Structures are given as structure tokens and as C-alpha cells.
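Consider today's protein:

***
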Amino acid sequence: FAALNVAVRNAASWTGDKAQAVRMATENPASVYRFCETGALTKGKLADIVVFDDAFNAAKVFVGGKLVYEK
């Protein structure tokens, strides 16, 4: 069992592409489970946002547009 940030960090190291690793953890699962209102930062979609540092640790978290965590 791994936390999502560890999974994204691993995927980024395997693919060499941080953006692709984040998509693998967000857009792809949202698409598979047909969560049409989530999964990407796009106008009209719901978005809770995690801002990662370079090691994919959470630096900031926004929920419902409000900052709820800052490292």
C-alpha cells in the first residue's frame, strides 16, 4: 500500500514525465470511473487541488477553493 504521492513519484521516475504521472493519478481514474466533473483543471469541473513540491510531497491543499493546508 502506498500513498498517492508515492505512486505519482514512482510513475514520474518510470516515465520521466511529471505531467504524465499526475495525469495517470487524476484524469485517467476519473475517466475510468466516469467522474465527468473531476479529474482535470478545466473550466466547469470541480477541483480540489494539491500543489506538490519537487519530491511530490503536498505543499498546499485547496478544497472548495479554500486553502486548507500549507507546509
Remarks:
- Residues 4-15 form the longest helix (12 residues).
- The first strand starts at residue 49 and ends at 52.
- The beta strands are 49-52, 58-63, 66-70.
